[in-house]
Design brief:
The chain contains 4 helices and 12 strands, in the order βαβββαβαβββββαββ. By secondary structure, it is of the alpha/beta class. Among the domains are: 57 residues, no CATH class; 109 residues. The strands form 2 sheets. Strands 5, 6, 7, 8, 9, 10, 11 and 12 form an 8-stranded parallel β-sheet that branches. It is rod-shaped and about 170 Å long. The termini are far apart.
Length: 246
């Protein structure tokens, strides 16, 4: 006896697993009477005498169900490995040169008289380092009168004057040029000048005649006295008058 069984699509999936491939198909099978074992066949005529014929027809597809709730968010995956650093790119071209900045405004420096004098003393000391004293003896025993700075500069570099050396006149305001002079074989006279100090002369020198420093109205007498103490004079020293400084 043949049996037809109509089963909804849901039960078809539950019982057959690999059942109908599409809705509306018919599946034929044989169910053992004694064992209950079910097998699928192409036609129920293939069933044996101890098997019941089974025909399964799939019904129409039901409506789509409501979507289920969203599942819980899964844990974060492990951090990926760091990528290999790429090669350094080529150096870019050099930029254009900037325009020159504006020139600054000159500043004003204010110093005291003492600071100025100290500065000039340091300048003179530096300049004296570059004076070469290797010309030896100047003159041949005569009388040498100096009245201008040009004539005075002609003695630069000489260490001795062979004769009398007379420095006079209002045009003389400094003794620069005599830094190398160590001795005068005759008289040394400094008179009627406008010098304010004796910085061009060495503090210790030899005069084998008279040392005469007089009538210098810008040169303080005490400066002359201090200088003369360190000068050897074979004949004598005549040091007055000069400026009377308080």
């Amino acid at each position: 006896m043949k049996t037809r069984i109509l089963v909804a699509g849901v039960f078809l999936v539950m019982f057959l697993g690999a059942g109908a491939q599409a809705w509306g198909e018919t599946i034929c099978g044989c169910s053992g009477v004694f064992t209950g074992r079910f097998r699928i066949v192409d036609d129920v005529d293939d069933c044996r005498w101890w098997e019941n014929e089974v025909v399964i027809e799939s019904g129409e597809q039901g409506p789509q169900g409501e979507p289920g709730p969203q599942g819980l968010e899964g844990p974060s995956g492990p951090q990926g490995l760091q990528g290999i650093q790429g090669e350094q790119g080529p150096t870019g071209p050099q930029g254009l040169q900037g325009t020159e900045g504006l020139r600054g405004v000159p500043g004003v420096c204010e110093i005291t008289r003492k600071e100025f004098d100290d500065l000039m003393a340091r300048v003179d000391a530096v300049e004296s380092m570059f004076i070469v004293c290797e010309k030896g003896i100047y003159g041949d025993g005569g009388y040498y009168e100096i009245t201008t700075h040009e004539a005075l500069s002609a003695l630069a570099g000489y260490t001795s004057v062979n004769g009398d050396l007379i420095i006079r006149g209002a045009e003389i305001t400094t003794l620069e040029g005599l830094e190398c002079l160590e001795s005068v074989e005759g008289d040394l006279m400094i008179m009627y000048t406008n010098i304010e100090n004796l910085d061009g002369l060495k503090n210790e020198m030899d005069v084998f005649g008279n040392l005469i420093i007089r009538h210098n109205m810008m040169l303080c007498q005490d400066v002359v006295d201090v200088f003369a103490k360190n000068v050897f004079s074979a004949a004598g020293k005549y040091l007055m008058p000069n400026k009377n400084c308080p």
